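Checked the freezer inventory, then went back to the computational side. Two predictions to log before the end of the day. The first one is the construct we discussed on Monday; recording sequence and tokens without edits.
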Amino acid sequence: MGCAASKSSTATVDYYRPPPSSFAVFDINAIDEPWVKAEQRQQENQEKPTHVPAVILEKLNALEAAPHSWDEVSKALEDFKPAINKPQAPTSPPKPAEQLTENQPPKSLTFHTIEELDAKLSSKPDANELGKTESMEKEKKTTITELKKNSEPRVSAQPVASKLKDNIFIVKDREEREKEGRMANYDKIMTRRDPLSEFPEICPPGGNNTVVIYTTSLRGVRRTFEDCNKVRGLLEVQRVVFDERDVSLHGEFLSELRELLGDEASVPRVFVKGRYLGGAEAVSELNETGKLGKILSLGRLERGVGRLACGGCGGARFVPCVECGGSCKVAAVSTGDKWERCGKCNENGLIHCPTCL
């Protein structure tokens, strides 16, 4: 169906023509097969020129077995050695003095006879000539000295060290060495001397050779309780044995502290071998600077856990009284109806731990 024009247009279309993308876009003749390359290499190797003479090549090709070493090659080419090593031409003898060329100029002589030579040698220079030569030499010396002065670099007017030991670099080096020596001697002196000599001498009872701290276990004031725990922890980290005196457990400890410090009788307070270190702030500052460890190590204090390992009190240093059971009251001996104050315990009904004391 359709018109004739449409049929004629469809008849001219070539349905069997491949698309343009299927055509080869490269030159097949530009491909080099491996066998073609091998033939080209053989031709190039054959066409390489040789620098060996043809006579020697014919001699080597005529041999039955090909030489492998240089000695074998030299033996095979012994016939050619005289031809290669040409004899040296004999050196011509030196020509006599008579056969010199005529172009050479004759030697000029300043005298003709021996008598004239003797006369010249025996003659002395005049006094005027000597004066002229001396003056010329003096002028030359003066000019040379002036040139030297001008050529020398000008030095600024600064004080120059007259001796080597006065050199500024040597002086600075000497001062630094002396300073280092003084610092080393100072460190030695500091290590030898008692580190506790800087602190005031305030010794609590029985604290000549140990560490004594006054603390409290009551939590009435939070900051005071935390400071006591902080000081106790610093000493425990240093692994030193200390005598903790809790003022809340025993009233005599508080009276001791008041006698030692007066108005400053607050806790915590630290004493080391009869020297007063201070409160929580002073001890923490010593610990941050590293002086606390040096003081405890150079003080030769007892190391270990101390009373904290006690199985009776566990480091509290006090236990309930056995007589009154911690009530501070006992029955009177005369009359059983009345009660008396227990004389063995303190105000809190506690006694010193018999195990750790």
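The second is the one RB wanted added to the comparison set:
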Amino acid sequence: MSKGKVLNLKDKINGNEMDLSLCNLSEVPVKELAALRKATVLDLSCNNITSLPPDFCKLTHLIRVDLSKNQLASLPDDLGNLCNLQHLDLYNNKLTGLPVSFSQLRNLKWLDLKDNPLETELAKAAGDCLDEKQCKQCASKVLLHMKEVQEEVDKAREKRFLKEREQQKKKEAKKTEREAKEREVRKLEKAEEKERRRKEYQAQLDATAAQEHQRKKKEEKKKRNGLAADKKAAEESAPKPRRSLIGLLFKLLLLLLLGLAGAAAACQLTELRREAACVPVNAALETGLAWARRQDVLLRQLLKDWSTMAKELLESSQTAKN
């Protein structure tokens, strides 16, 4: 039957039964069957169907399905979703096993698995299906067997899950340990970097302090050298006191006066006054005294001027020494 004819399913439905047997089908028209939910009995026997699409498991309204005499090598993993399925005929296919979800077909009452290359344990559980009673026993025993398989699968899955979780925990523990070590390393590196910067900063401070000390030392030395040079220059540049001509004349005059005074005193106070040599001295002394009396004011002014000049000379000499 061509695909166009197969798609016209309304010609194949009779009440709640959909007969698609002997239609030379290679695939199941799931989309069209899903639209005819009143068809709870589906006959797909004697076709060339090699597999059932995953969407076939969405036809939950099916109660009875005949897939005998096809080329099915496997069934969908979600076959257990056909929760209302009660009768399943899989006679004369190429099945070696059933999906684990098969155990979820709680309403299954009849099953035929004859003439399939089933694995040993499943074949033993299925037994023969030569009459109604044996097919019902097949459904019951296969469901029980698949429940055991489900339990084993669940245990294996749980064991695998626990193993994976344990491995995950170990990985997380290793990761946590590695992260802790990395944090410790970063902490140590940070501390070392901080210590290195501290030492560099301290070295800079020490270098700056040493430079400042050297600078101050040089400045002090320069200052001392400058003071010494200034002192030396001052000493060298200080004018040597020159004898004043007036001072020299004053000294000569003073010596002369002292000499004259001594001679006058000798001629006046000693026995020499009667000598001929003292006569002119006494005469000159009397003449000088007479003249001095006349020039008293002039002499006093002269003495005052000499005194001032002497004082200035002493001060100038004292300043030069300092």
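For RB: The first strand starts at residue 13 and ends at 14. Residues 1-6 have pLDDT under 50 and may be disordered. Let me know if you want it refolded.
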